[in-house]
Amino acid sequence: MSQKTIKPKRVANLNSLKARLIVSALLLILVLMPLIGLTLNNAFKEQVKSASKNELSAYVYSVLAVTEFDHGQLLMPDLLLENQFNVIQSGLYALITMPKVNAGQSRIAWQSNSFLGFKAPVNLAHPATGQSEFSEIKLEGKPYLIYSFTASFEQPNSAAALPITLHIIKDQLDFQRQVDRFTKQLWSWLLILMALLVIVQMAWLLWTLKPLAKFSKELNDIEQGRTQQLTEIYPTELQAVARQLNALLNTEQSQRKRYRNALSDLAHSLKTPLAVIQSQKELNSAAIEQVSIINSIIGHQLKRAQTAAGASWHLGIKVKSVADKLIRTLHKIYREPQISIDQNSDPQAIFKGDEADLTEILGNVLDNACKAAKSQVALTVTANEDELIITVEDDGKGISPEQHSQIFERGIRAESYQRGHGIGLAIVRDLTDSYNGQLFVSTSKNLGGAKFEFRFSF
Q: What whole-number distance in Å separates Cα of residue 336 and Cα of residue 383?
């Protein structure tokens, strides 16, 4: 018998167009929206930081406006106009540093009242005269923003200008509060937007793919034999496919009908000469038997030529309905001795082929099983999405391993079968091959006799 073909495993997520579209849409939403969120959040953070820089810059000029030097001595008012500089640890601080004489380091020449209680920071920035620098520092472990600006004051009696660096320090509490509030609102709205986009995207995909679902349903109806044509109105892209498929179905059905009619006419034309030959009185029993065998062979070949296997992709018949009819008939034939035929069939199991072919296959194998059985025959039919499996077992003497291949030769029958011309199993084999099926013969573990197993891949 034919060797089993190994099929690649189906990967639903890769083979389904619907699944691919859904995955791509979800990836687009789940990747694009977070990127937009991160970009907006960073942009807002930079904007707030820029606003803080401008704010600190304004404080620099307000402090510089009241800064004076008298004979090289820095003079600052007791209270500044901005009240936060006057309140201890208010979160806004001002420092003025000046270079030490004959040294590269700097010293704090003045600090605002608000800075009382803090340890003087080290490594403060000292940009060039007229330049500024904006950065972050830590005071007692907490982050602060610092804006440093260097200015120079001319001395009346000296040609050298006196440089100072003014540092405005502000805590990041307000800055961080604004960023956190914006971040929370941003991601809340983005999550809502993502959920809405997913719902809209799913609805759009279902609406877009609805014609494909209808197309698939109609093809399944044709495959199961419930209809013969595609009747729905499809979008332009699918309408041409539906029209061509309908034309193909019409052509195939017409050709098959003409072919079967021609073969039927041929069968009738051959029956008459054979009947005349069989009616001759001078023929001996051996000649009559040979004519009968010729008649059976002609019938078998005509039956094989008429099989619908070539067009079976759009046909379908439930195995159980055919098996029920055959079992009722066999119960009437095999009454003495009574043969019990147990059936365990999946009601939804479909044979994707012609009903006459399935009847021929099951009829021959079940009939042979009843001939060989002592009292019991078992029929089992199972199916999954890839394969139909039909098993026929009996409790007879079984078939020897040497005969497993011989019984399918025309004119040869197993010792278990006392009647017939040995053509039935040859017909079964040819029909199975025509559907690219597989037929295995072995010994039944349950009943002890022969076991015939058919496998038809979809």
A: 34
Residue 57 lies in a domain: no
| CATH, residue 84 | 3.30.450
Per-residue burial over 233-245, b if 16 or more Cβ lie within 10 Å, else e, is: ebeeebeeebeeb
- pLDDT score for 286: 75
Say which residues have a Cβ less than 8 Å from residue 393's Cβ, sequence separation at least 6.
369, 377, 378, 380, 444, 446, 447, 449, 450, 451, 452
DSSP conformation class of 115 = G
**Contact (CB, 8 A) for 192 and 282:** no
What is the distance between the terminal CA atoms of the chain, rounded to a whole angstrom?
18
- Residue given tokens 């510089």 in the structure block: 64
pTM of the model: 0.48
Could you tell me if 169 and 146 are in contact, meaning their C-beta atoms sit under 8 angstroms apart?
yes
Is the distance from CB of 57 to CB of 77 less than 8 angstroms? no
Q: Which secondary structure element, helix H or strand E, spans residue 185, and what is its range? A: helix 173-223
Reading phi first (left if > 0) and then psi (alpha if -120 to 50, else beta), residue 91 is in left
The residues of the chain scoring below 70 in pLDDT are 1-15, 100-105, 157-159, 224-225, 264, 297, 299-315, 404-423, 458
DSSP string for 276-344: HHHT-TT--HHHHHHHHHHHHHHHHHHHHHT--GGGGGG--EEHHHHHHHHHHHHHHH-TTTT-EEEEE
User: What is the per-residue pLDDT across 383-433, written as a single tens digit (0 to 9) for each?
Assistant: 987 889 999 999 988 887 777 666 666 544 444 444 444 567 878 888 888
| Residue 326 and residue 429 share a domain | yes
The strand pairing partners of 146, in sequence order, are 135, 169
Residue 147 located in a structural domain: yes
What pLDDT shows up at residue 404?
Answer: 67
- Indicate the angle between helix axes 236-278 and 173-223, nearest 10 degrees: 30
Q: Quick one: 360 and 436 in the same domain? A: yes
Mark which of 306, 330, 354 sits at the end of a domain: 306
DSSP annotation string for 356-388: HHHHHHHHHHHHHHHHH-SSEEEEEEEE-SSEE
Distance CA 236, CA 89 (A): 75
The tally of domains found in the chain comes to: 3
Residue 199 in any domain: the answer is no
> Within 10 A of 59 (CB to CB), how many other CB atoms are there?
23
- 104-115 in b/e form (b: 16+ CB < 10 A) is eebeeebbbbbb
Question: Does any domain span residue 121?
Answer: yes
Range of the domain at 345: 314-457
β-partners of residue 73 are 70
